[in-house]
Every structure is written in C-alpha cells, then in structure tokens.
C-alpha cells in the first residue's frame, strides 16, 4: 500500500536526483518520470531494495540525494519546498506510483549520471538513457 508519506518521499527523491534535468531539452518531465520508474520498479520487485516506497528511497547509499554528505540532503529535509519544479515532482510521484504513467525505462532498477562509472555498472548493458542519466535493468 502506498501512503501519502511515500508520495512525499518519492517526490523529494525525484527532486533531489533530477530537478536539473527538467529544463534540459534532452530531459524534461520524462527525466523526472524515469527516476520515479526506478523507485517503483525496485519497490515492485520486493527484494532487498525495501518493502515500502519510502524504504526504497531511503535505503542507505541507493539514492545519493539522501546521503548526509550530499548537497541535496539538507534541502530535502526542509518541511516545505517552494519550487515549481517540486510541484511537478509531486505530480509525477503520484501518477507513477499509481500506475497512471508508463515505465519509460523498460523496467530499469539502477541508474547513474553520465560521466560516472560506478562499480556495479561494469559489464552491464544500459536499457535507457535520458538527459544525463543512464539506466539499467540489473537482475
């Protein structure tokens, strides 16, 4: 079951991970949707990622915006985020969480920013790219 608090945490995760992509010609709202898709794909897999949307988002070292040393962390902890992009993130969170928008990523459960090469991506084939994010479906 998805609670209101899950939607809020998902929206904050989308905002922390991809708000800069919103204004890119090669990103836009689809970039926000793709981040939400990864969270929901992890949630729906019911594995070690977490047993709630909030649990998936807050799992240590999975979404960098929730790492205490990340510059986004203090912003995401604010009670109110007054930014028009955050309002879009809330809408995306709601619609993706309740299956009103499609999975643009084709089932991706991992991603990283272009220019990074995390160890887990070695030997993995990307399944989708949008803006500055590359997506993977790692089984």
Tell me about this structure.
- This protein is 40% helix and 9% strand.
- The protein has 139 residues and is mainly alpha-helical.
- The protein has a three-stranded antiparallel beta sheet with strand order 1-3-2, with helices on one face.
- The model has no long low-confidence stretch (mean pLDDT 96).
Rounded to an integer, what's the Rg over CA atoms?
14 Å
Strand order of the largest sheet: 1-3-2
Main sheet record:
3 strands, antiparallel
Estimated helix fraction: 40-55%
Multimeric state: single chain
In DSSP terms (H or I, runs of 4 or more residues), the helix count works out at 5
Order of helices and strands: HHHHHEEE
Which descriptor suits the 3D outline? globular
Compute the separation of the termini in Å.
24 Å
What percentage of the residues does DSSP assign to strands (E)? 5-15%
Unreliable stretches (pLDDT < 50, length at least 5) are none
Task: Look at the structure and give the mean pLDDT.
Answer: 96
Tell me how many strands there are. 3
**Coarse structural class:** mainly alpha
How are the secondary structure elements laid out?
Layout: H1 4-18, H2 29-45, H3 53-58, H4 73-76, H5 84-97, E1 110-113, E2 126-130, E3 133-136
Antiparallel strand pairs: 1-3, 2-3
Helix pairs in contact: 1-2, 1-5, 2-5
Question: What's the gist of this structure?
Answer:
By secondary structure, the protein is mainly alpha-helical.
């Amino acid at each position: 079951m998805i609670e209101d608090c899950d939607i809020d945490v998902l929206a904050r995760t989308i905002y922390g991970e991809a708000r800069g992509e919103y204004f890119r010609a090669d990103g836009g709202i689809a970039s926000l949707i793709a981040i939400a898709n990864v969270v929901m794909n992890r949630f729906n897999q019911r594995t070690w990622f977490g047993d709630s949307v909030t649990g998936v988002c807050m799992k240590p070292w999975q979404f960098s915006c929730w790492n205490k040393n990340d510059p986004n962390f203090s912003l995401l902890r604010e009670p109110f985020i007054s930014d028009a992009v955050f309002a879009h993130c809330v809408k995306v969170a709601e619609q993706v969480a309740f299956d009103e928008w499609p999975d643009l990523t084709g089932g991706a459960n991992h991603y990283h920013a272009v220019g990074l090469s995390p160890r887990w991506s070695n030997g993995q084939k990307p399944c989708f790219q949008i803006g500055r994010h590359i997506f993977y479906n790692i089984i």
